[in-house]
């Protein structure tokens, strides 16, 4: 074989079709997530009630926007990462740059997902009465969310020995089974999401509310199932990745990674967006009655919606849950 045959084919210096789709979808979903977070803060400003769930979702958006989206744009740029082509068209320098950006994007995805879950847990703590069992559940789930995030980040960073071999393609190294590790971490994410969704449904159906309000609240919270669907599709496509041609086969899983991450932010904001929409639609209508997700302090009590109140555990002060 001649030396010319051993060199990679000329890499087309253009955004690949797969990368173009990735950029468009990532920008659309990140924009939607940003709009949802902005509207959430508009709603919170109106009620003058900011808490940890709001700051956690803002942190999730920062990682999604300033970390993953930025890396996606850089890795897709023809003069930088040039993603989306078969690996035999790249030079060694191009591959080194590509894998550095890929590692950064994968690592930064995890705190975004973890913070969106933390926001949901804080939201549950904010609106539901806190008994001993529920508080224990919150602590356990928080422990698993943090643990899963750290395990995923450290697993990605130290998946090769030496670590530098992850972006230095010519360096000898031992490496774990990447797709299997990604799939396991994704499964853990799904299990956590399903557990959080299930406990919310249990708490809703124990509230002293009318069946109509229970169905309404349950339906809004069940919209979080879209994140689970996206997570499942992400796993399916992660298992199709060919590590010997990762620059080409990772594109579709990357798209679903962006969709899942931003959907988790959007779904975490939906209860507040519903409340904002309800208030806007019912403005000026003094007879409108619906579920209000924003705790409103009234003389040392907190109410959710309208109607008689039910005593709940102390939270900042003596509080009640609207029923």
UniProtKB/TrEMBL annotation:
The chain crosses the membrane at residues 20-43, 55-81, 101-124, 136-160, 180-203, 215-239, 259-277. It is found in: Membrane. Belongs to the SAT4 family. One of its GO terms (cellular component) is membrane. It is a multi-pass membrane protein. Keywords: Membrane, Transmembrane, Transmembrane helix. Residues 39-279 form the Rhodopsin domain. This is Rhodopsin domain-containing protein. Its main location: membrane. InterPro entries: Rhodopsin_dom_fungi, SAT4-like.
């Amino acid at each position: 074989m001649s030396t010319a045959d051993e060199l990679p084919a000329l890499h087309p210096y253009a955004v690949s079709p797969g990368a173009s789709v990735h950029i468009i979808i990532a920008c659309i979903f990140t924009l939607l997530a940003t709009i949802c977070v902005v509207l959430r803060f508009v709603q919170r400003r109106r009620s003058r009630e900011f808490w940890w769930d709001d700051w956690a979702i803002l942190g999730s958006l920062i990682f999604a926007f300033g970390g993953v989206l930025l890396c996606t744009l850089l890795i897709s740029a023809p003069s930088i990462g040039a993603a989306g082509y078969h690996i035999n068209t790249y030079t060694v320098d191009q591959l080194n740059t590509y894998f550095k950006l890929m590692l950064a994007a994968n690592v930064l995805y995890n705190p975004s997902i973890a913070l969106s879950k933390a926001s949901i847990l804080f939201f549950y703590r904010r609106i539901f009465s806190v008994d001993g069992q529920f508080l224990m559940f919150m602590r356990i789930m928080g422990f698993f969310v943090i643990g899963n995030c750290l395990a995923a980040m450290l697993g990605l960073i130290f998946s090769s020995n030496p670590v530098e071999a992850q972006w230095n393609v010519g360096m000898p190294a031992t490496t774990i089974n990447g797709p299997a590790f990604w799939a396991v971490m994704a499964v853990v994410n799904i299990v956590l999401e399903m557990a959080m969704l299930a406990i919310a449904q249990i708490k809703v159906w124990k509230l002293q509310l009318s069946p109509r309000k229970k169905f309404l609240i349950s339906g809004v919270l069940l919209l979080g199932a879209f994140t689970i669907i996206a997570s499942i599709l992400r796993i399916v496509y992660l298992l199709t990745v060919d590590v010997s041609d990762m620059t080409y086969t990772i594109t579709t899983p990357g798209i679903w990674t962006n969709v899942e991450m931003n959907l988790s932010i959007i779904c975490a904001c939906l209860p507040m967006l519903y409340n904002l929409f309800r208030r806007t639609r019912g403005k000026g209508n003094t007879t409108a009655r619906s579920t209000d997700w924003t705790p409103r302090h009234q003389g040392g009590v907190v109410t959710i919606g309208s109607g008689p109140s039910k005593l709940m555990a102390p939270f900042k002060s003596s509080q009640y849950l609207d029923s």
